[in-house]
Design goal:
Elements lengths: L2 H6 L2 H11 L3 H8 L7 H21 L14 H5 L6 H22 L8 H5 L5 H10 E3 L2 E2 L5 H28 L9 E3 L2 E7 L8 E6 L5 E6 L3 H29 L3 H27 L11 E6 L12 E5 L5 E5 L6 H16 L17 E5 L12 H15 L4 E5 L8 H17 L3 E6 L2 H9 L3 E9 L4 E8 L7 H7 L4 H10 L2 H86 L5 H26 L16 E4 L4 E5 L8 E6 L2 E6 L3 E3 L1 H28 L3 E3 L5 H17 L4 E5 L6 H12 L3 E6 L9 E6 L1
Parallel strand pairs: 9-12, 9-13, 10-11, 11-12, 20-21
Antiparallel strand pairs: 1-2, 3-4, 4-6, 5-6, 7-8, 13-14, 15-16, 15-19, 16-17, 17-18, 21-23, 22-23
Length: about 800
């Protein structure tokens, strides 16, 4: 892809944004060198990488590559038996730490994706990582535990230093006024005393240095010469032992040089790929589709315009027409639309997502050419027209069916008649050669050209005449209207001047502008009607769903009621049958006896009759669909009722209105019903009231009990975090129930682990208003003061 179009369409600024998202120098370098491809296979693979990185970011968060550096330059000497220094080994350790983070991150992913192969190729070499961290503390320090010999040498060094300081203290005390200061100094790596010039012969020893004035000599006392010599020898031994340790670690790394190099390459690639994913998330972008050979951008937003200011545009090109001519006023967004198409094409072919809706299509082009902006050159004596025409000639000489050509104000900068004719001729040439092109213009002739020419389409950037500002909305299929007269009138230009200007415009031009104006008016009216129809359709669909849901609830309730009624009817009939059978058995028994008691038989008959009447009444009530219920006229908020149409119990939320309608809360559902559909459940209402009163009473007792027993502080000193947090949690609950406004948590200073755990726990409590460390007089950093809401 030519470098000029990358700058013209501001692709380089997108690359700068991508570089910012990468973590490592290697990842940033790969991002900076990203260029569009024209190979559909490569493009598809790059897009898949970005999409799968974005998916992982959404599911598991971002993966960071801090610590990744290029260690490959010193891997070759390592393979040949060389020894790595401390800083080089620390860079190896940082690389392996990054590799460990990557493999742990990949372990969270369920299944395989386009990035799995790279993750599986990473080896964090845990043994080497542990050995480096065991032996090396920092750039300037090797651990005492790196080897037994090193530990022994450093113990001897400490002992020798202690002896030297002890002897020097004696020497200082003995020297008295002979010393310039009672301070021990180092010269040439040896301990010395600052002796006055006049006493240099009085202090036996070796002179190592002299002050600039000559008044002070730095003398190593003879008593510590041997100790200093011992110390110097120990320092040499320490360095030799450190060299051995570094050589041993290097020897451990040498066989894994190839693995280390592979880790560098794979992690750098992943850093770059995840940078693409993070940029996609930041821009709220989506993967474009390249399966069709045309451009269709849905609600595309130019990524360099702030999100709260950019106006999304819809653009199609290359499917029903090959050329798109965009017209409209200045500052109306024509150039932005042109750059958006060019930039999205470059981004998509570089494997980057585009800030547009899902389902957007892009076409693969071998080259993108753009003539955008004013490139007037004083040095080359080129006018604006000459500059644009030079670019146009360059494009015409190279354009083919596999290129996208973008022209801003084609033919502008010269006589309008000649410029329009040239523009039409250039577009005709591109059209005949099958080139996909997009151009902006002010010329009416190009609008007419698009209307009468096959495979050419008009588009316009809308302008709100009433508000005197562009809407930046791109409308395909409608040419832009010249608003010069209308805008001039709004700005206060005299009506006489405007009328005279209209008279100077030929009849054909006026007619064409009137046609465009009528088209624009009709389009706006159709847009309003379409929006109304869409709103009506949405409303009807919503009402239909609500009605279907309501009917389903009613059907379900009816089925439950009928089933319950049938069960009750069967139960009543069964009881009546059992009662009648029992009565018949009694009659048979009495008839077989010597003398039946008629009064007893009459009483039994009356009881049977009463039972049958009772059964008949209940059966009639069930068969008619009516259920005995208590009156619900005098309902109060909080009463428990049965909603018979739904077969659900609920609680009264509001009092009935003039029509008898009220709201009832049924679980998570709150619905408006009529009072005639309700049955007051007196027993359940009383039970509910009783439980509430009991709960209030018990809560009051609990608070009173707590307030009597809870102190205003808790001492956690000596507890581990695991022991302290459960105790703290219970204490905070008790203190809150006791209505204490402020409490003190005593945790001590120590390492700070308990203090951090206490404050982390306080941060999670919803009933805590604030918490802070104690001030002077309250316990300082050893306590945390908590205030409840």
């Amino acid at each position: 892809m030519n470098k000029k179009v990358l700058k013209t369409c501001e692709y380089d600024k997108i690359i700068n944004m991508l570089v910012e998202e990468a973590d490592s120098p290697l990842g940033k370098d790969k991002a900076a060198r990203l260029r569009p491809s024209s190979d559909i296979g490569e493009i598809t693979a790059m897009q898949a990488e970005t999409s799968h990185a974005l998916n992982r970011i959404f599911h598991n968060g971002a993966l960071y590559f801090n610590g990744l550096t290029d260690i490959r330059p010193f891997l070759t000497p390592l393979e040949k038996g060389g020894t790595l220094g401390i800083s080089e080994l620390l860079r190896v350790s940082a690389l392996l730490a990054c590799a460990k983070r990557a493999t742990d991150y990949d372990a969270k992913e369920e299944g395989k994706d386009f990035l799995s192969g790279r993750f599986e190729g990473i080896n964090p070499l845990p043994d080497i990582y542990r050995e480096i961290n065991r032996c090396i503390i920092s750039e300037d320090e090797i651990s005492d535990d790196a080897s037994g010999a090193l530990k022994s040498i450093r113990r001897q060094i400490k002992t020798t230093n202690d002896k030297i300081r002890e002897q020097l203290t004696k020497e200082v005390n003995a020297a008295g006024d002979k010393l310039r200061d009672s301070i021990i100094t180092m010269r040439n790596g040896r301990y010395c005393l600052p002796v006055r010039q006049e006493y240099k012969s009085a202090v036996p020893g070796m002179i190592h240095d002299q002050s600039s004035t000559g008044s002070t000599f730095f003398i190593e006392p003879m008593a510590i010469v041997k100790l200093n010599n011992d110390l110097a020898e120990l320092a040499i031994k320490e360095k030799e032992e450190i060299d051995k340790i570094l050589a041993a670690i290097s020897a451990l790394c040498a066989p894994e040089a190839e693995t280390l190099e592979r880790n560098v390459i794979l992690l750098a690639e992943l850093d770059f790929i995840f940078a693409k994913g993070k940029l996609s998330k930041k821009m709220q972008a989506s993967e474009p589709n390249f399966s069709e050979n045309y451009i269709e951008i849905k609600k595309g937003r130019h990524p360099l315009i702030p999100r709260d200011k950019v106006v999304p545009i819809d653009v199609t090109l290359g499917r029903d027409y090959k050329l798109l001519i965009v017209t409209g006023p200045n500052t109306g967004g024509k150039t932005v639309s042109l750059k958006t198409v060019g930039l999205f094409t470059l981004m998509g072919q570089a494997g980057l997502h585009i800030p547009a809706f899902d389902g957007s299509h892009l076409c693969v082009f071998e080259e993108v050419y753009a003539d955008i902006g004013d490139e007037q050159s004083i040095e080359q004596s080129l006018s604006t027209f000459s500059s644009h025409m030079s670019n146009t000639v360059y494009i015409l000489n190279r354009a083919n069916k596999r290129t996208l050509a973008l022209f801003d104000e084609l033919g502008a900068g010269t006589d309008p008649v000649e410029g329009a004719a040239l523009a039409i001729s250039i577009l005709d040439n591109l059209l005949n050669r099958g080139v996909t092109a997009m151009s902006t213009t002010h010329y009416s002739e190009l609008k007419e050209y698009a209307l009468r020419t096959k495979n050419v389409e008009n588009a316009s950037c809308e302008f709100d005449v009433e508000k005197m500002q562009p809407t930046y909305k791109l409308i395909i299929g409608v040419p832009g209207k010249s608003n010069a007269f209308t805008i001039s009138r709004k700005l206060g230009l005299s009506k006489d001047i405007i009328d005279h200007a209209k008279g100077l415009v030929n009849e054909d031009a006026r007619s064409f502008e009137d046609v465009i104006a009528n088209l624009d008016k009709t389009r706006k009216e159709l847009e309003i009607e379409r929006q109304k129809a869409a709103n009506y359709r949405d409303n009807i669909e919503r009402q239909k769903k609500n009605l279907e849901a309501k009917n389903e609830r009613i059907d379900n309730a009816r089925e439950r009621i009928l089933k319950k009624a049938n069960d009750e009817a069967n139960e009543i009939l069964q009881k009546a049958k059992d009662f009648a059978d029992e009565s018949i058995r009694k009659y048979n028994k009495w008839m077989n006896s010597a003398g039946p008691d008629m009064s007893v038989m009459e009483a039994e008959r009356a009881a049977l009759r009463a039972e049958l009447d009772k059964t008949e009444t209940k059966s009639a009530g069930i068969s008619s669909g009516k259920k005995p219920k208590k009156a619900a006229e005098n309902l109060a908020i909080g009463d428990v009722v049965m909603v018979h149409s739904m077969g659900i119990k609920g609680t009264v939320s509001t009092l009935p209105n003039s029509k008898g309608n009220l709201f009832v809360q049924m679980g998570i559902m709150r619905s408006e019903v009529n009072i005639s559909d309700l049955e007051f459940l007196e027993d359940e209402t009383k039970m509910k009231t009783k439980e509430k009163n009991k709960e209030r009473s018990e809560m009051g007792k609990l608070r009173m009990s707590k307030s009597m027993s809870v102190t205003s502080s808790i001492n956690l000193i000596g507890k581990t975090v695991d022991e302290a947090i459960p105790l703290l949690d219970k204490y905070l609950d008790d203190a809150y129930l006791a209505k204490l406004s402020q409490v003190t948590i005593i945790h001590g200073v120590g390492t700070g682990a308990l203090r951090n755990a206490v404050q982390a726990h306080c941060r999670k409590q919803k009933n805590i208003a604030t918490y802070r460390l104690g001030e002077y007089g309250e316990g300082g950093y050893g306590v945390t003061i908590v205030e409840f809401k």
